[in-house]
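One such shown below:

_____
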Amino acid sequence: MDFLSALTGSFSQHAAGNPTVAMVEAAYRHHGLDFRYINCDVAKEALGDAVRGARAMGWRGFNLSIPHKVAVIEHIDALAESAAIIGAVNCVRSDQGRLVGENTDGKGFVQSLDGIVAIDGAGVVVLGAGGAARAIAVELALAGADRITVVNRTAAKADELAALVSERTSAKGAVSAWDEPLRVPDGTDILVNATSIGLYPDGGIPPVDFASLDPAALVADVIVNPRDTPYLAKAKARGCKTVDGHGMLVNQAIIGIAHWTGVHVDGAVMRSTLESIFGQGADRGEV
């Protein structure tokens, strides 16, 4: 008998509010995989120590969440193509002892919009310019969005991401100042909150003028806890279709688990686990 499970996990802050551990371990059990997923609260200054610890213990891989998606790059050995373009890492895999950074966030987000909204030719506004925002902006551009407008309180980061979109994709990258409340630009088909505003336990709502939203637009949130954020509630009240963060969470986890285990797990198992924790989804925000 073998009593040594393969280890995976997540490094973030406010880790106690992250439900990924519950859904990933449910997938491991369902597929009979002798893997464990460990949710770790890691301070910014301790990230290097955490990565060295995972390397020393032979972890098969790990996820990164706020605030580590960019900072982790200096602590790993290589970047896969998508992570290199995006400049952020949310998933690390061990390749014969070398730690390789991947980015599955954007792909997971794009998959969560399948059948809900047309991306090709769309005008997109992304709130934020951090790791999740970078992944989502680039992958939406690669999926055929026509224009990606970045809104961020730190103008330099918004400028950098908009330039990345323009230089590395066929979409046009643009920047809009975040005057509060933000008036959503005309022609916005998809509005994405890719900031941490609204995340448990801090809560809050991005300062958006919801009256400026076109009711035909789709509004998405990357926040997974709580599932039904006040931001999405206000968008629904405006008449918009909404997508919560659980679709992205499940889809990126399927990709990440395949990197670690070689198995394409059943996403329905993870969706069911999230629904048991947070309840059934409403409108098109279900996963």
Summary: Residues 107-244 form a domain with the Rossmann fold fold (CATH 3.40.50.720). The two ends are 38 Å apart (CA to CA). Residues 281-287 have pLDDT under 50 and may be disordered.
